[in-house]
Amino acid sequence: MTKQKYKPGKIRERNNENILAAAEQEFVLHGFKGTSMQSIADRAGVPKANIHYYFKNKANLYRSLLESIMQVWNEVLSDITPDSDPADVLSRFIRSKMELSYTHPNASKIFAMEIIQGAPHLREYLSNNMRTWMKERTAVIQSWIDQDKIRAIDPTHLIFMIWSTTQHYADFETQILEVTNKRQYEPDDIDQITHFLIDIIFTRLGLEQPQLEPFRPQPEEETSEPASSPL
Amino acid sequence: MTKQKYKPGKIRERNNENILAAAEQEFVLHGFKGTSMQSIADRAGVPKANIHYYFKNKANLYRSLLESIMQVWNEVLSDITPDSDPADVLSRFIRSKMELSYTHPNASKIFAMEIIQGAPHLREYLSNNMRTWMKERTAVIQSWIDQDKIRAIDPTHLIFMIWSTTQHYADFETQILEVTNKRQYEPDDIDQITHFLIDIIFTRLGLEQPQLEPFRPQPEEETSEPASSPL
DNA sequence: GTCTATACCCAGATAGAC
DNA sequence: GTCTATCTGGGTATAGAC
């Protein structure tokens, strides 16, 4: 009879997270149109009607997922200024992206599928936010070039290169594990790839290879975040 | 009444190609599960039952598409030997991949979505063919290192880097065009990106930048190949 | 807030007339 | 070889009892 000390809305919050985690799995496996509300309900262990009660409809649920993904996406490379040390900022950029590929592969995959299919649910967001995001970053990189901090390079394609190479390890995980004959990535793999990418890019930019702390993922906390948290 | 000089099976062949081209479009937009046979039929301008007559079922049609994609995929980097000139082989590798991203973006996208979703229709192929493909290539690159033709580097991740950076321009086309504020890629863009990638990679490998013929796509022939040929 | 039952629609696939 | 009509299952969404 001891009434649990859940603060109001705690149950709803937990249900929300369970449903989002289940939806993430299903959307990765079958895409937006190919995923059924029933399969999400089954995986989350709730009746199908409850998902409609919480999220209204499938498009809404999917958009909630995309929003939580874009939120994390926007945190990387947010501390870049003309006065920054390029080696510091770029190595942390590459490293953060690699860590995200390791810790949140499904988020990366859902984003990738959304873009590949023409970004039907994300077009507005892209044109509103992405272009200015890019303009600001490339302007800073160009200022580094003008200050002779790095060798001249096309800043836009440099960012595309870092995006593509790091996200590749999340999105094409299946192919990479098959080809390299591994069962799963280990933290050491993430370190090795991060060094590989920094090595190639920094050589071209005329930067010294930085010393990096090895990547050690935090042991999964009990309920601080759901296991497959939306990115 | 002049009986057309179509060789036997010509009509069937044309129908096949139309259906495959329509299927390619639909599978890119909606994924395997999300695509309906009706929408493929509508796009191809044939009754739905005919597709079942030609391809038996959806999975079969999809696999036919994947096979034609893998066929083209396998042609690149097929002429690599320990005696080859690394600068020549690698620059043509990068260039071919960039040209494929330009000429066959949908093929790249379908392949990407298949891998992202866990390669349910391609797993067997991957484990049978891909690992030996990779072993052979990385062995040759390692031999170049042993011969001091290029600076030491991890051959496997070098190939991943070329795959990811080149395919990115096909798969993430929507995002890239939005961010760079373009309506579509031009042949000049392909040249510029190719040079960008060769520049960075060759600098790290200690190779001279090669002279490259500019990329000029052949003017679309009338019926030599369907407009949206399967890769 | 929760879940059963159901309305309504569209999917893949095939039978069978042409 | 072609296409209409139809079978059967599963989809989204909601009404309404609990």
Report the largest inter-chain contact: A-B, 52 and 52 residues
Shape of chain A: globular
What share of residues are in beta strands of chain A?
A: under 5%
Largest sheet of chain A: none
**How would you spell out the order of helices and strands of chain A?**
HHHHHHHHHH
Radius of gyration of chain A using CA atoms only: 20 Å
Total number of distinct structural domains of chain A:
2
CATH class of the largest domain in chain A: Mainly Alpha
Rounded to the nearest angstrom, the distance between the terminal CA atoms of chain A is 37 Å
Helix count of chain A equals 10
The counted number of beta strands of chain A is 0
Query: What is the assigned CATH homologous superfamily of the largest domain in chain A?
Result: Tetracycline Repressor, domain 2
**What percentage of residues of chain A falls in helices of 4 or more residues?**
55-70%
Question: Might you state the CATH topology name of the largest domain in chain A?
Answer: Tetracycline Repressor, domain 2
Structural class of chain A: mainly alpha
The poorly predicted ranges of chain A are: 1-6, 222-231
Mean pLDDT of chain A: 91
Looking at the overall shape, the CATH architecture of the largest domain in chain A is Orthogonal Bundle
Oligomer: homodimer
Keywords (chains A, B): DNA-binding
Protein name (chains A, B): TetR/AcrR family transcriptional regulator
Pfam families (chains A, B): TetR_C_3, TetR_N
Domain HTH tetR-type (chains A, B): 13-73
